[in-house]
Specification:
Elements (H helix, E strand, L loop, with lengths): L18 E4 L1 E5 L6 E5 L6 H22 L23
Antiparallel strand pairs: 1-2, 2-3
């Protein structure tokens, strides 16, 4: 199954909810990081060329967004807040 970009207006680092998908590779947007999940087969055919162009356009947009900012040396890791739950066995 071939999936195209789910968000053609994907703006890197603009929000914490948008996703761009190319085949089985997903770019999950975030305001401090973009997570990549999945795989992408680049085949030697027209579909492979389309996927490669989509990948390049997405990476170019990420690079442009990063180049246009005054960046810190490294983003601080944010620990996930632990949620307290009631013991179901008490």
């Amino acid at each position: 199954m071939t999936r195209r970009k789910t968000d053609p207006a994907f703006t890197p680092f603009a929000d914490d909810s948008s996703v761009r998908t190319i085949a089985d590779l997903s770019f999950e947007n975030g305001t401090s990081r973009i997570a990549l999940h999945g795989t992408l087969d680049i085949t030697r055919d027209r579909e492979g060329l389309r996927r490669t162009r989509d990948l390049k356009a997405t990476l170019d947009a990420i690079v442009t967004a990063l180049e246009g900012e005054d960046l810190p040396e490294q983003v601080a890791e944010e620990p996930e807040a632990a949620e307290k739950v009631q013991n179901p066995f008490a």
